Amino acid sequence: MLLLAVLSCPVVAQERFSEAEVNQEKMFIEANREKLLGHFDKAITILRELHRQQGDNAAITYELGRLLQAEGQLEEAIRYLQLATTLDPANEWYPKFLADIYQQEGRNAEGAALYEKLVQNSPNDEFLYFRWAYFLVRAQQVDKALKVYDELEKRVGLNEEIARRKHTLYLGMGDTKRASRELERLAEAFPTAIAYQHLLADFYESQGDTAAARKVYERIISQNPSDPQAQLALAGGSNVQNDELRYLADLQPAFERSDVPIDQKISKLYPFITKVAATGDRELADAALLLTQIMEVIHSNEAKPFAAAGDLYYHSGRPQEAIAKYRETLERDENVFPVWEQLLVSLYETGDTKGLYQTANAALDVFPNRAIIQYYLAIAAIQQGNYTEALDAISLAELMSGRDPELLSAAKALAGEVYSYQKKAADAAAAFAKALTLAPRSPEVNYRYSQYMLAQNQLPAAKNAARIAVDAASDNPYYAYGMARILYEEKAYDQAEQQLAEARKNGARYWASALELSGDVQFQLNQVEKAVEYWQQAKVLAGANPRLDIKITNRSL
């Protein structure tokens, strides 16, 4: 019996172990079933019991960590996942999952350490190097990240991905010399790869090193004489300032090519649009407009050429032509808010009340929450005598203006103007007081306040406010016209004409009121023929107007 018992012991033990293993397998399957059903808490309970029984089982430990992470129990999850990576160091998925959690929690140095070990285990896996460097960069260890890329380059050689990443890191460090060197190395390593030459040229241009960029473009042309970007870059010679008009003319062949991207053409044109905006140079604008006309044909479905033309016309004193181009722009792309805004400004400055009203309403269909659109809608409503609608639009503009004190104050001043037209003196005074409190130096507020003071025959106060507006924006036709009205009342006719000339230049030549006042001023200056000419121009715009008829017939005020 004793011998039998001894011999049978191993068999009994083996049977008991197998039974336990089977039960544990059943528990593991049950845990996964609960997980699939979304019962994470039940699955965690089962896995905890399994882990208690098999604390050295990496798979159970890992699954428990994953579920704890899903339930938001991060610290405990991390502890189990760390244990899983220790129990089975050959399984790369455990540290990768743990690293993802470290990334979410900002524990980037720990994530980098995990990928360092992964690289040691799999030194030929490029992806691991990139992830390692990524965590090092997030951990503010850029120098170490660069060394990781250097190590990878030794293994696989220089390629675009490595060069670009090192270039970006050096650029972020402010080391433009080393940043450029990475792109130079790439271009040197692959001299026939035109794309790498363009990368280098683009970087030089972004750094303002046009001479270096030009050399690269010349190298590109030597390899591919028809390269459109290089042709465009080299057009006009190296010194644009020597002859801007010739430079623009030399751009024409490149602009006529459909394979030159429109954005590259616009980038060539942009400095000249900016200069026209600053100087109003019509000759320069006309030279640039020849190029926008070419783009309108070559890229007829694109909005950008028409927007560029609109800006060139507007800033060279041709608002009506600008309006037409802005409308053509919006026909192609109605989702560009600055174009809507510039169109509204142009319509306002040319005194096109009907167009301003219609366009503001159309703009609100696309951008319903823009305060400035409500502001222009209110102006148009005022000019049409729709004061209730104007006040509604002003109220919405105030609500939408947010933290923009300039716009909020302008809206309140506009409300003051409406109240003054409605003979609500107290409301008007209160609105202007609020506007001036919010933005005492606002040109828009002071312009409207000056006209309010003028209506009350408070000439000194009116003139002081008008001066603030004109000094801030002398090219605004309303501000100049407003000052001219005050100067006329002061009998300062020469000065009034100076302001009117500025107003007419910037859009007031399309206003009957400004032309009539110009005639009145000329009559006071004993220039009767000029006076009659202005009155006649005003009548063409105003239509039936007995007052103008009398002035023209009598050739007198």
Tell me what the structure shows.
- By secondary structure, the chain is mostly helical.
- Among the domains are: 158-227, Tetratricopeptide repeat domain (Serine Threonine Protein Phosphatase 5, Tetratricopeptide repeat, Alpha Horseshoe), CATH 1.25.40.10; 235-333, Alpha Horseshoe (Serine Threonine Protein Phosphatase 5, Tetratricopeptide repeat), CATH 1.25.40.
- It has 32 helices and no strands.
- The protein has helices at residues 2-36, 40-53, 58-70, 74-87, 93-105, 108-121, 126-138, 142-156, 160-172, 176-189, 194-206, 210-223, 228-234, 244-250, 252-255, 262-279, 282-298, 304-315, 319-332, 337-349, 353-366, 371-383, 387-400, 405-421, 425-438, 443-455, 459-472, 477-489, 493-505, 512-524, 528-542, 546-554.
- The radius of gyration is 37 Å and the shape is elongated.
Characterize this entry briefly.
The protein is mostly helical and 557 residues long.
Q: Sheet with the most strands?
A: none
| Helix count, DSSP H or I runs of 4 or more residues | 32
Question: What's the architecture of the domain at 235-333 in CATH terms?
Answer: Alpha Horseshoe
CATH class of the domain at 235-333: Mainly Alpha
- At CATH level 3, the topology of the domain at 235-333 is Serine Threonine Protein Phosphatase 5, Tetratricopeptide repeat
The percent range for strand residues is under 5%
Please estimate the helix content. Answer: over 70%
Total E-strand runs? 0
Radius of gyration in whole Å, from Cα? 37 Å
